[in-house]
Design goal:
The complex is a heterodimer. Helices cover 6% and strands 52% of the residues of chain A. Chain A is mainly beta. Among the domains of chain B are: 5-125 and 257-305, no CATH class; 181-202 and 327-386, no CATH class. In chain B, 11% of the residues lie in helices and 38% in strands. Chain B has 5 helices and 24 strands. In chain B, strands 2, 3, 4, 5, 6, 7, 8, 9, 19, 20 and 21 form an 11-stranded mixed β-sheet that branches. The chains are: A mainly beta, B mainly beta. β56 of chain A pairs antiparallel with β1 (21-24) of chain B, so a sheet runs across the interface.
């Protein structure tokens, strides 16, 4: 936004200075054609026009001008035409079709162009797509001939007439090149005589000009944007966000950014990219979810168009459940979560789906080794509404099935996801967006157990503008996550186990622009949870398993929120948010009471109490604050700080060292308290070289209460007394994050490093509730050093190379401290939790993107992506584990991808 | 296309089967020395056994018995049953006794260093008899055929619910080329003489007994009835141990929920379920604590279990009537010359002295490569004591 303002400012000031130099004209036209107008002007002033009759249409104009410059008159007359004009030698006006010889309003240097044949009227064809006749630059001087001359000019976009930054102006044969600045200006030194310059920028058509340089001169070029941006490498157009954004610790990923980043299994994965940014890590390949700033996996709120996505991963975390074709962008709030969001204490991942085109039918598809993906955009009502449909699936299953290998008969893996989004703009004030999403996973890995899981989401978002100062959104959303465990072995205990969590939420969010200083966001939200923690059914007639259902849980989480973006002055700005959250545990339920100062076990259970339907059995409430501020030390350097508190009323019950899709979610109740976190952060942000480079350094400290962990050997499925298996305790995490990004140029990408720690404490007077003697110990995802480089290099128009390097400290594990014999068999003795680490993780990926040809008229735009994951073939251990085999202990390490994995994907758009 | 498909499928197989699980060496980082107590008393009237040992270094070989300790079990009527160490780390009760349903029992251990340990007081679990053992032919997950032996039990009172099993398998070994005669050396110098005599030891049929070495537990809490149908043992059809006659003794221990939980956790931590999910390992608290140091960890669970046992016999032909069992060793005959004039030596006597072959019979095959007077077979093919004990167990029924 600021950038835009700057441009407007420049535009105006130069326009003024340009006008000042010129004489003022007062003139009126009544139903005159352009040709007539030109001749009137020629008569009344001393300007001479040069043009081709055929270019001028017969439309007539009526207008009155008083005391204005010639430029204003011409702008008006030529508005909405393909014609342009240039004023040379003060009084010669050249009308051009196409867009080249445009005299920019903010141009300071006078343009000097003369034809080789000076006798004939000058008109120069400047279609930007074609190689054209030579343009001569400067006046031929007979007395003096320099070796080199300077050519200056501006490059603007043909579509919206805005200056284009970062265009490379290249004299290929002579190896001379310059890049335009943020005003689109360039200055290139060219040798006398024939030259050929090209303008190169991704997303724009290349324009080639033949020049004959006689002297110093000016050349303005308009370049056309490519009809479709195929290989966008522009990392973000909101470049100043880095330093300007008031909310500390926000990361935005545009889907366009990640197109060229090397892929695993041919999937472009927005969440994987997120983990290359400092502060966001994953426990390892094949581990579900991400850890943000030392928080647990369940502390992240994944929102897909405002609906909660409980499991954002397919196939145990190897693929993301978010379709890259339909995703517009992902915002990650890892520092200060805006007050309108709540219910999770680490981060919010706000994923927005694209709006479908309302004007043309479009589509995109990819065919990869393991998955395929297709998305289409269908305009329903022209310029009003559109429908986006997409589906993604893997075909691994039929390949597995078609094999004759018996050992694979018991293995299967498949997943799919579908998404539909309808957007309808009723009028300027009302827009409705409706999204539906469903995902499904099904896998069985050489065992008798089949796991199935899936998300089902729906949301409707009505956006209404009351007036210039007020607008609001009403959002209704629902989300459902379910998993199923199907055991089919020998014996009489085959079963089918189901788990479901369902939430329905409503939210009213209002925005009020009070003044230049204050913008308020306020509203209410409420969410009803319904959890069916488990039903088990016998699978067949032989099974003796009795149908059992753990009673449903119900809870209502509501909040009111208000926040103010307070711009104190140009330098200082705050985002102050408050949120009051109330959680009500609702019946029907039976709550269990234990005496104080005793461990929670079946043996100590005092009494139980039953509550009726919708009867409130437990209330938790509190004020959450979200404060964030930014101060500009100078226009390119800012300081940001934040301090915030949040609550979480829902817990993911995981009894493994990493999250799994069959982890149940549990609502807070009498015995399981809500989690809390307080975070403070401080950072310094700098942009260099007109936003070409972004730099940030941020530190944070977080304190948690009631983080949920579990006793060794805890079993959560179908357990009615979860509190006897879990432990809650305080946690802390802290770290420093460093990020440098290069946004533009042939070589771009980023480098991130973070040092971070994450600890948990489980202390209790009772032996069985104490872990590591009650001291703080590192969490399962405590990885102090995390280092990432992402680099893209554009080789030519069609080829680009990208690479990704990651290094992380190995995650903590619990290591044996001895062995023992028990009943004739050897077992491992485990020492304190998480005192050792698996070897460090590092990986290099390389990818090559090959564009289809750039013919304008063709059916589909296509590109190939060839990538190699883990080029170094590093055997990165995911886990080290100890198995008792034939009475002896054997240690193993497992890795998911221990060899280089090449993939090739074909993508096309139509 | 075919190549393409096969490449993809190989890739998927790689992905699916996680061939990237590699065995590694265990390194010692630190060593923690704890007491291990194996104590289960039952409702059988007998001299009960308790074993004490200590943890040992991860690279060392166990077991590491704990000697010189005092052990006593005290019931709720203050009867004390003392235990004496009979071999290092093994303690046997002075007198025979059995656990009685109405009482509770507490284990007390005092080590030679004077540390004392006590268990929680435990009650005898409810008694459930094994109904029967059955066999069925099943296919393993890897696709191989074998015999599965299952335990069936039923408790109409529905109050046992948690079961642990131990088995003892005994199989008969009858070498295919046994002879009741033996060849002995009379003179090992010129003139070389040997003699065929009756065997002095009985090595026609032998028996070998092996105990179960894994945790076998099941529960019926989630079932409609307290009815067990538990596959306790699976043996591949090609396994030598069932090639002749086989017997399985199954012992069923009824457990408390806490004891079951202890074993289940131990089992979970000592097996790999999936490469993606790893159970959180850690110390498993049992029901024995130190009387002096609250942070000292003691391994083991003191159980007072009701027990029931049942034995099953079968022959290979009973299960796989259409198949013939194969002897696991290659039994090629040798017939060395008694005297080899070329080397002025007796290859036969040399072979007898090496004791790797045994006598089978007189050589009347007339085959050119069997020139000598007697047929000799590898010892395993003619002498059962190589693979088992020639003492017939008292329970054995042919």
């Amino acid at each position: 936004m600021k950038k835009l303002l700057v441009h407007v400012f420049l535009f105006v000031s130069f326009a003024l200075s340009a006008q000042n130099k010129q004489e003022k004209i007062s003139i009126s036209f009544t139903n005159n054609t352009k040709k007539e107008i030109f001749s009137i002007l020629e008569k009344k002033t001393n300007y001479t026009f040069f043009y081709v009759d055929a270019w001028l249409d017969e439309t007539v104009l009526t207008d009155i001008f008083k005391n204005v410059s010639i430029a204003i008159i011409l702008d008006k007359i030529l508005d909405n035409t393909s014609l342009n004009y240039s004023i040379i030698e003060n009084h010669k006006i050249i009308i051009t079709q196409g867009n080249l010889l445009h005299k920019s309003l903010y141009e300071e240097t006078e343009m000097t162009i003369s034809s080789l044949k000076t006798a004939t009227p000058i008109y120069i064809e400047t279609d930007s797509n074609e190689e054209n006749n030579a343009i001569s630059i400067g006046k031929e001087s007979k007395d003096h001939q320099q070796e080199n001359y300077t050519l200056k000019g501006f490059i603007k976009s043909q579509q919206n007439n805005t200056p284009v930054e970062g265009v490379v102006v290249l004299e290929r044969d002579k190896n001379i090149s310059v890049t335009t600045d943020k005003n689109g200006a360039f200055t290139i030194v060219l040798p006398f005589g024939k030259n050929k310059i090209e303008t190169l920028l991704l997303g724009f058509k290349t324009s080639v000009k033949k020049l004959i340089v006689f002297g110093n001169g000016t050349l303005n070029i308009k370049i056309a944007e490519e009809a479709e941006m195929l290989d966008e490498l522009i990392i973000t157009t909101k470049k100043e966000n880095n330093i300007k954004e008031v909310i500390a610790g926000i990361t935005q990923i545009n889907i366009e950014e990640i197109k060229n980043i090397p892929q695993v299994l041919g999937e472009r994965d927005i969440l994987k990219i997120a983990t290359t940014l400092p502060g966001i890590t994953s426990a390892g390949e094949g581990a579900e979810g991400v850890n943000v700033r030392g928080g647990k996996v369940d502390q992240n709120l994944f929102l897909l168009d405002e609906s909660v996505l409980y499991n954002p991963a397919h196939f145990l975390g190897l693929f993301s459940a978010i379709n890259p074709f339909t995703t517009s962008d992902l915002k990650v709030y890892k520092g200060n979560i805006p007050a309108e969001y709540g219910g999770r204490i680490s981060a919010v991942f706000d994923i927005t789906t694209k709006d479908a085109s309302t004007t043309e039918f479009k589509g995109e598809a990819s065919i990869g080794a393991v998955t395929s993906n297709i998305s289409i955009e269908i305009p329903i009502l022209k310029e009003k509404s559109g429908l986006l449909l997409a589906a993604r699936s893997t075909y691994s299953n039929w390949i597995l099935k078609s094999l004759n290998d018996k050992s694979l008969n018991n293995s299967s893996a498949s997943f799919y996801d579908i998404i539909a989004k309808y957007n309808h703009t009723f009028n300027e004030k009302n827009t409705v967006r409706i999204t539906g999403y469903h995902s499904n996973d099904n896998f069985r890995i050489a065992s008798d157990t089949t796991n199935t899981y899936g998300n089902t989401l729906a949301s409707i978002n009505w956006s209404h503008k009351f007036n210039d100062k007020n607008h609001g959104n009403v959002i209704l959303a629902s989300s459902n996550y379910a998993f199923n465990i199907n055991y089919d072995g020998t014996g009489n205990n085959n079963f089918d186990l189901k788990y479901t969590i369902n939430e329905i939420s409503g939210k009213l969010r209002m925005q009020y622009v009070h003044s230049k200083e204050h913008t308020f966001t306020y509203g209410v939200s409420s969410k009803l949870y319904n959890v069916a923690p488990g039903t088990i059914n016998p699978l067949d007639d032989n099974s003796m398993v009795v149908t059992l259902s753990v009673p449903d849980e119900k809870g209502l989480e509501s909040a009111v929120f208000v926040s103010d973006i307070f711009d104190v002055n140009k330098k200082l700005s705050f985002n102050l948010g408050l949120r009051y959250s109330v959680y009500l545990g609702l019946g029907t339920t039976i709550q269990r009471f234990y005496p104080e100062n005793s461990p929670l076990t079946d043996a100590t259970l005092l009494s139980t109490q039953a509550y009726g339907n919708n009867e409130i059995y437990q209330t938790y409430q509190g004020l959450e604050y979200r404060f964030s501020g930014r101060y500009f030390l100078n226009p390119e350097l800012s300081l940001k700080a934040s301090f915030n508190k949040s609550f979480q009323f829902i817990h993911r019950l995981s009894n493994n060292t990493s999250a799994s899709p069959t982890d149940a979610w549990k609502l807070s109740d009498r015995n399981i308290k809500p989690q809390e976190a307080i975070q403070g952060s401080l950072g310094i942000f700098k942009n260099f070289n007109v936003n070409e480079y972004e730099l940030s350094l941020e530190g944070y400290y977080k304190k948690y209460s009631n983080v949920l962990d579990y006793k060794v050997g805890a079993n959560f499925l179908l357990n009615e007394r979860i509190e006897t298996e879990v432990l809650q305790g305080p946690g802390k995490s802290y770290g420093i994050e460093f990020l440098i990004k290069k946004n533009i140029g042939k070589l771009n990408g980023w480098f991130g490093y973070s040092y971070s720690r994450s600890f948990l404490q489980l202390d209790s007077p009772f032996n069985e509730d104490r872990v590591n003697n009650g001291d703080f110990f590192p969490t399962n995802f405590d990885k102090p050093h995390d280092f990432n480089i992402i680099a893209n290099y554009k080789l030519t128009q069609r080829f680009s190379l990208s690479s990704n390097f990651t290094y992380q400290t190995g995650r903590p594990i619990t290591y044996p401290t001895g062995k023992y014999n028990y009943q004739g068999t050897e077992y491992v003795l485990y020492g304190n939790r998480n005192q050792y680490r698996i070897p460090d993780y590092y990986r290099l990926d390389i990818g090559l993107n090959i564009e289809g040809n750039h013919k304008i008229k063709k059916l589909a735009h296509s590109f190939w992506n060839i990538s190699v994951y883990n080029v170094l073939g590093r055997n990165n251990p995911f886990a080290v584990f100890f198995v008792t085999e034939n009475g002896n202990v054997q240690a193993y390490q497992s890795a998911i991808f221990s060899t280089p994995i090449p993939t090739i994907t074909y993508n096309f758009k139509f | 296309m075919k190549l393409f498909k096969s490449t993809i499928s190989k890739f998927l197989v790689f992905l699916m089967l996680f061939s990237c699980v590699d065995p590694i060496e265990i390194e010692t980082i630190t060593f923690e020395n704890y007491l291990v107590i194996e104590a289960t008393i039952t409702d059988e009237l007998k001299n009960h056994t308790i074993k004490l040992s200590r943890t040992f270094d991860i690279n060392a070989k166990g077991p590491n018995p704990e000697t010189g300790a005092q052990i006593a079990i005290i019931d709720s009527q203050n009867n004390t049953f003392y235990f004496n160490e009979t071999s290092s780390g093994t303690y046997i009760s002075e007198n025979q006794f059995k656990a009685i349903p109405a009482l509770t029992y507490t284990l007390k251990v005092t080590t030679k260093t004077g540390n004392t340990y006590s268990s929680t007081s435990e009650k005898l679990t409810n008694a459930v008899q094994i109904e029967k053992l059955t066999t069925s032919i099943e296919t393993s997950r890897e696709g191989a055929t074998g015999v599965s032996i299952s335990v069936h039990s039923f408790n109409p009172n529905n109050n046992a619910n948690y079961y642990r099993y131990q088995y003892e398998e005994t199989y008969k070994i009858s070498p295919p080329f046994w002879s009741d005669e033996n060849l002995i050396v009379v003179s090992d110098s010129q003139p070389f003489t040997v003699d065929v005599v009756k065997r002095s030891t009985d090595n026609k049929d032998c028996y070998k007994t092996i105990n179960s070495a894994q945790i076998l537990i099941t529960e019926t809490k989630s079932l409609a009835e307290d009815r067990v149908h538990f596959p306790v043992r699976f043996i591949l059809e090609s396994d030598f141990i069932i090639s002749n006659r086989y017997s399985l003794l199954v012992k069923q221990y009824v457990q408390t929920f806490e004891a079951y939980n202890y074993y289940e956790t131990l089992k979970k931590l000592s097996s790999s379920e999936s490469v993606f999910t790893q159970a959180q390992p850690g110390f498993i608290s049992g029901n024995i604590i130190s009387d002096t140091d609250k942070n000292e960890k003691i391994i083991g669970f003191f159980e007072v279990s009701s027990v029931s046992e049942k034995r099953l016999f079968f022959n290979y032909q009973d299960i796989f009537p259409k198949q013939v069992s194969k002897f696991p060793a290659i039994c090629d005959f040798l017939a060395p010359l008694l005297y080899d004039s070329f080397s002025d030596n007796s290859p036969l006597i040399n072979l007898i002295k090496k004791d790797s072959y045994t006598y089978y019979g007189k050589n009347n095959t007339g085959l050119p490569n069997l020139e000598g007077p007697y047929l000799m077979v590898p010892k395993i093919c003619g002498d059962c004591t190589v693979s088992g004990s020639n003492i017939k167990p008292s329970f054995w029924v042919d």
